[in-house]
Amino acid sequence: MIDPILPTYNRVNLVFERGEGAWLFTRDGERYLDFTAGIAVNVLGHAHPHLVAALTEQAGKLWHLSNVFRIEGGERLAARLTQATFADTMFFTNSGAEALECAIKMARKYHAANGAPERYRIITFEGAFHGRTLATIAAGGNPKYMEGFGPAMDGFDQVPFGDIEAVKAAIGPRTGAILVEPVQGEGGVRALSWSQLRALRALCDETGLLLILDEVQCGVGRTGKFFAHEWAGITPDIMAVAKGIGGGFPVGACLAKEEAAKGMTAGTHGSTYGGNPLAMSVANAVLDVVLAEGFMEQVQATSARLKQKLAELKDRHPAVIAEIRGEGLLLGLRTHVPNTDLVAAMRAEGMLAPTASENVVRLLPPLNIGDAEIDAAFTRLDAACARLENAMKPEAVKGAAA
Ligand SMILES: *Cc1c(COP(=O)(O)O)cnc(C)c1O
After folding, report:
1. What is the DSSP letter of 152?
2. Which of 150, 195, 391, 401 has a CA-to-CA distance to 131 between 20 and 30 Å?
3. How far is CA 262 from each of CA 7, 88, 266, rounded to the nearest angstrom?
4. What's the gap in Å between 129 CA and the centre of ligand 1?
5. How confident is the model at residue 401, as a pLDDT?
6. What local confidence, expressed as pLDDT, does residue 212 receive?
7. Domain that holds residue 162
């Protein structure tokens, strides 16, 4: 008999009752160190007092309003985000995929407004993940996510990740934009080099393409800058944001420069829920914390400490850990064992983390963890690796150590 919830997820049989910071608690009081953080969503951990206060205060006043009315919280959030980023304007959504949908529509509309509607094609990259709607599975190009869902939406040309020559070769008269994640999350925690990102920007400038960045996972402080592209010293024309921006409340946004947004006039796009007062109150509260003086420096310092611990872990367990990769607190452990085995062993030791492609285990802690959580993570990872080594043939462990 089918589960009353559509069985599209293989769910872990754990029921959490509450969370506090980087910790999740089951009903029988077991606690888990949460380095999944709702897949890079809970940037301030669980039940952050400032977010709880913002949400509960707004809940007593006004939850939802149609976008046919002015929404003060949204105006405030947009003003703050334009101030803190490259963007002049933005559209609020409820998810990352919707932010990407808006970005794709905006890029097409831009060229149409310039009298070149044939420039609707967008260059994307292998290993990309942009969401699960029909347009975003076509953009991501992962056959696993497309199979059986009919003809793929037209308009995406995929090239190997980071291959600038392949991008050049793929640009034709119908190309209108390049869409890329500065750091791929699902794709295996793979970062573009900042020089590659600069090369893509230069290529867009030369050929009149729009540069669309998907910072749904790597944005909002995850790499130690507010947005990852800041490391490269470039700006996109359009950027999709979600996950961390709501700190756990469903919020997304499509940010853009004025020029790129010029086709998106009244009536061209919409959302019933996007940017409603409840969502905006929480997103503004997230910004209160992440835009505060010193927050990004703190993330960078935390990242450096965690990376150092992970290097020690790799030295201690060469039969399990093959490589440490990633930026800021978007980190990955590529493993010699199946990544799902390490995730299961970590769970047995009281720590949660998601997998990614290329046999990687992702570590996506809340951005505000401290030394106690880093130490707890090391202890649990160390024990999980030891568990896996104990289950291996002794020669395999010794061989890797030699
Ligand atoms: C999660 C994610 C998305 C999709 O976001 P949803 O909120 O699940 O629709 C898009 N792009 C990237 C890079 C993501 O990590």
Report:
1. P
2. 195
3. 41, 11, 11
4. 7
5. 61
6. 99
7. 49-290
